[in-house]
C-alpha cells in the first residue's frame, strides 16, 4: 500500500510539471530557472586554437540610434553577447552578466547585441534594472563572430583573438571568468 501511495504522488508531481511546461504563463519562468541551474562556467580556448577576428569592419547601432564603429574597439578586451528578450537561456544569464558589467564596464567593452528593435531590448533592460548597453547590427558581423544560436558570447583579447566562445547560458560572474578578464586586461 505504501509503495502505491508513493507512486501516486510521483505521478501527480510529474503531471503538475508537464502541465506547468505546457502553459505559456509558467513555461518561460520554469525554463529560466532550469537554465540558471545548468549554466556552466565559460571555458577558455587553448592559446594555439584561438581564432582571430578577420576584420573590425562592422557597424552597430546603439539605443540612441547612433552608429557605432566596431573598429574603435580594436586593441581592447571585448565581450560580445548575442541575446533576445524572448530567449530563456539569455534571460537566465543576464544577472551574472550585469554583475560583471558593473565591475568591468570602465575597462572592458561590452556589446549586448539583439536582433530585436532597440525599443524592445532597451525596454527589457530598463524593466529588469540592468544598465548593460544594447545594440543592433547595421552591417553583417565579421567572421568568425556569428550569433545564430542564442545566447552566444565571445570574449576577445586585445589582439583580436577569441579567448572564449560560449553557446548557451553561462555563469559569467564566476571567479574563473573574472580571473580570465584580469589576465587579459594585464596583457
Give the helix level as a range of percent: 40-55%
How do the SSEs run, as a string of H and E?
A: HHEEEHEHEEEH
The main β sheet shows up as:
7 strands, mixed
Low-pLDDT runs of 5+ residues are: none
CATH class category label of the largest domain: Alpha Beta
Query: Could you say which overall geometry the principal axes of the C-alpha atoms support?
Result: globular
Overall structural domain count = 2
| CA(first)-CA(last) distance | 67 Å
Oligomer: single chain
Protein name: TlpA family protein disulfide reductase
Domain Thioredoxin: 44-186
InterPro entries: Redoxin, Thioredoxin-like_sf, Thioredoxin_domain, Thioredoxin_ResA/DsbE_sf
GO molecular function, one term: oxidoreductase activity
What would your notes on this structure say?
The protein has about 190 residues and is an alpha/beta fold. The chain has helices at about 1-20, 25-40, 90-105, 120-130, 175-185; strands spanning about 60, 65-70, 80-85, 110-115, 135, 150-155, 160-165. It folds into two domains: about 1-35, no CATH class; about 40-185, Glutaredoxin (3-Layer(aba) Sandwich). A seven-stranded mixed beta sheet has the order 2-1-5-4-3-6-7, covered by helices on one side. Helix 2 packs across helix 3. Pfam families: Redoxin. Keywords: Membrane, Transmembrane, Transmembrane helix. InterPro entries: Redoxin, Thioredoxin-like_sf, Thioredoxin_domain, Thioredoxin_ResA/DsbE_sf. It comes from Zunongwangia profunda.
Amino acid at each position: 500500500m505504501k509503495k502505491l501511495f508513493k507512486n501516486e504522488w510521483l505521478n501527480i508531481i510529474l503531471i503538475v510539471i508537464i502541465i506547468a511546461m505546457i502553459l505559456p504563463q509558467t513555461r518561460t519562468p520554469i525554463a529560466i530557472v532550469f537554465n540558471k541551474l545548468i549554466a556552466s562556467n565559460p571555458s577558455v580556448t587553448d592559446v594555439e586554437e584561438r581564432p582571430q577576428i578577420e576584420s573590425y569592419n562592422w557597424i552597430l547601432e546603439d539605443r540612441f540610434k547612433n552608429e557605432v564603429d566596431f573598429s574603435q574597439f580594436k586593441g581592447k578586451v571585448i565581450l560580445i553577447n548575442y541575446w533576445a528578450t524572448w530567449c530563456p537561456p539569455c534571460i537566465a544569464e543576464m544577472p551574472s552578466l550585469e554583475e560583471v558589467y558593473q565591475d568591468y564596464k570602465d575597462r572592458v567593452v561590452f556589446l549586448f547585441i539583439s536582433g530585436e528593435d532597440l525599443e524592445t531590448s532597451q525596454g527589457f533592460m530598463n524593466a529588469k534594472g540592468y544598465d548593460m548597453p544594447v545594440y543592433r547590427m547595421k552591417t553583417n558581423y565579421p567572421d568568425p563572430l556569428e550569433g545564430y544560436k542564442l545566447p552566444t558570447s565571445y570574449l576577445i583579447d586585445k589582439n583580436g583573438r577569441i579567448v572564449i566562445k560560449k553557446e548557451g547560458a553561462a555563469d559569467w560572474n564566476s571567479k574563473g571568468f573574472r580571473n580570465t578578464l584580469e589576465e587579459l586586461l594585464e596583457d
